[in-house]
Design brief:
By secondary structure, the chain is mostly helical. The protein has two helices and no strands. Helices cover 77% and strands 0% of the residues. Helix 1 packs antiparallel against helix 2. The chain is rod-shaped and about 65 Å long.
Length: 77
Amino acid sequence: MATKKNDPTEIGYADAVAELEEILIEIESDDVDVDRLATQVKRAADLIEICRGRLGAAQTEITRIVADLELLDDEAT
């Protein structure tokens, strides 16, 4: 069974950003483990994709909610 940290369908936006920050710290360190570098960069790319997807979904939902509110406001007048 996949862990929450490794399963892109289970990780939340805040957790993804936190993990990205951890990866960035590791990559920027003077003693970066070259053997882990490609793996960490791949994981970072996956996390960025997850974050972009969550942001896009939130934007779509907010746009829908605002449109519904405007429709209700128009009906009330």
